[in-house]
Amino acid sequence: MKENCVIFKGKKDGLIIMLDNEVPFDELKGTFAQKVREATNFFGDAKVSLSFKGRELAEAEEEELLDIVTANTQLKISHVGVIETKSDVQERIMEISENATIQNCLFHRSSLRSGQDIRYSGSVVIVGDVNPGGEVIAEGNVVVLGAIKGLVHAGCSGNTDCYVFALNLSPIQLRIADIICHIPPELKEKNKKNPQASFAYVDEGQVYIAQL
Amino acid sequence: MSEVIVVTSGKGGVGKTTTSANLGTGLAASGKKVVMIDADIGLRNLDVVMGLENRIVYDLIDVVEGNCRLKQALIKDKRYSTLYLLPAAQTRDKTAVSPEQMQKLCDSLREEFDFIIIDCPAGIEQGFKNAIAGADRAIVITTPEVSAVRDADRIIGLLEAGDLRNPMLILNRIRPEMVKRGDMLALEDVTDILAIEVLGIVPEDESIVVSTNKGEPAVIDNNSKAGQAYRNISRRLMGEDVPIMNFEADNGFFSRIFKLFRT
After folding, report:
1. DSSP label at B232?
2. With respect to CATH, is domain A3-98 assigned 3.30.750?
3. Domain ranges in chain A?
4. Taking the CB of residue A10, how many other CB atoms lie within 10 A of it?
5. What pLDDT, in 10s, does the model give residues A46-71?
6. Dihedral in degrees, nearest 10, Cα atoms B227, B230, B231, B234
7. Which of A162, B68, B76, B229 could disulfide-pair with A154, CB 3.0 to 4.6 Å?
8. Tens digits of per-residue pLDDT, B41-80?
9. Which residues of A touch B154 (CB under 8 A)?
10. Measured between CB atoms, does A110 come within 8 Å of chain B?
11. Distance from B157 to chain A by nearest Cα, in Å?
């Protein structure tokens, strides 16, 4: 049974049930029933609205799924809806979990000295500098309210949407996802005399630096 | 209240032993009771620089292992009666002593001395950990070179992690002419990265080579620029407010005239 053909996602006062579009309905029903039973205690007797997402459901199919919910949980269902269909549910799920990663942020309020490192499965904000020999490795974005003179790696698990920002971007090496680059010497010279806030991002496999 | 100060750097060869010798002598010359401890077990140098190597009978390891009393191992300086040296062992290595033993040793010296200066070995492992164990404060030595500054930054991170906060910086072997030409890092470039308080600057000076070979610390020599810098630093350690030296190579009358013509 494909474990992630059914995924529950909680919203403010509603429950979104993501359904895989390609799995045959009976198999889906089986997984659904199992997941509902596993989650009963978690749901409790909350009042929720239910929405099915990712698969076109016939009325009878929807009924069956709702019956499973009412039979196995104490949820009070206020309203049932079907949200837009997206063909590739897995992609959606990946997107959501990636965004969640980026939105997790670690704040660090001091400089990183040589030999010190921060590794985080989320974004990192440093109020201070990253000295040469210091390293920041993040799955999300890296924002440094100071100078980056060490190593910075944003989107380390392969996310090219991540960016690096610094008040003085003069790293020894800059990495976003799996692209490794360094600052051209003219820019380094310029930064020494007159550092400017800069923003590094990836566009079509290439790292660009915008000076703000 | 006695102070235990460790002189460290990370990088080797930047002037820890020279600084320990000169500061110890400078403080003693002002009447303070000072003991210098050479913590570089196996590669001892402080005794050579002080000119006391032929007076060593017992060393730090002998004290720690109980082969002798602490007083028996302390060597009184040739020139200043309030200055003592506790030499390192040359035939052992850094594993022969532990941080706890070093701390106990420093504590037992506190009663008798105003200043205890620990000459730390290069590196970041056991030798370093031993040297900082008993210290209240740290002085970080660096030269104006990228590699030395990188290592100093690492050391400062380790000191802060070891609860030796607010270390002070001595920038050693600076050449004002090269700084002016832009060929050498200036003090500001160094403090930009290290971001710690500056205790002093010592210029590059041939007299250091001479004084080391003679076993007479440069701080005694009135004609030595480096010696003057160390005298100033000693005074700052005792609480005096001494302005940083002006290192212009030649402030003579004719050079000032030539400067007028040049501008």
Report:
1. H
2. yes
3. 3-98, 104-211
4. 12
5. 777 888 887 878 888 888 888 888 88
6. -160
7. A162
8. 999 999 999 999 999 999 999 999 999 999 999 999 999 9
9. 113-115, 133
10. no
11. 6
